[in-house]
From TrEMBL:
Matching PANTHER family: HETEROGENEOUS NUCLEAR RIBONUCLEOPROTEIN 87F-RELATED (PTHR48027)
UniProt keyword RNA-binding present: yes
Gene source species: Arabidopsis suecica
Domain RRM: 34-112
The entry's keywords: RNA-binding
UniProt keyword Cell inner membrane present: no
Name listed for the protein in its UniProt record: RNA-binding domain superfamily
Length: 144
């Protein structure tokens, strides 16, 4: 994805759509600063509807609603990425605490993904051995 962003940015510069001093549409510095977390979404909100609502504040690069893998329903939150940090800040101020599709939404800057367990899966340990549990919970009587 990053490679495509760099190629797209170079192409836009080479054809004269943007100059090299202007901030690129596919800026590598965009990162989390222009990506917003949107919580409290209605389950009927679509990615297109989310994008259209937030496009009032600027150019929406991507609107994503997080779906449950099992039920294929919305989890009630998503992310909106803007072309610039200023547009993201404007959307944060305008939409935080406002209603969208009948529900009050909460908007904040997205946080960077954190890998769970250093990128490894957690170890399945299973239930404790009953003998070990009994040995650690019983105290020797003081009358012995």
């Amino acid at each position: 994805m990053a490679a495509l962003a760099r190629i797209g940015g170079r192409h836009l510069k080479s054809v004269g759509v943007i100059n090299s001093s202007a901030s690129c549409f596919f800026s590598q510095r965009r990162g989390v600063a222009s990506k917003l977390f949107v919580g409290g979404l209605s389950f009927c909100t679509t990615e297109q509807g989310l994008s259209e609502a937030f496009s009032k504040c600027g150019q929406v690069v991507e609107a994503q609603i997080v779906m449950d893998r099992v039920s294929d329903r919305s989890k009630g939150f998503g992310f909106v990425t803007f072309a610039s940090v200023d547009e993201a800040q404007k959307a944060l101020m305008e939409f935080n605490g406002q209603q969208l599709n009948g529900r009050v939404i909460f908007v904040d800057y997205a946080k960077a993904k954190q890998s769970f367990g250093g990128g490894r899966y957690p170890i399945a340990r299973g239930p404790p051995d009953p003998v070990e549990v009994a040995a650690t919970t019983t105290e020797p009587s003081k009358n012995d």
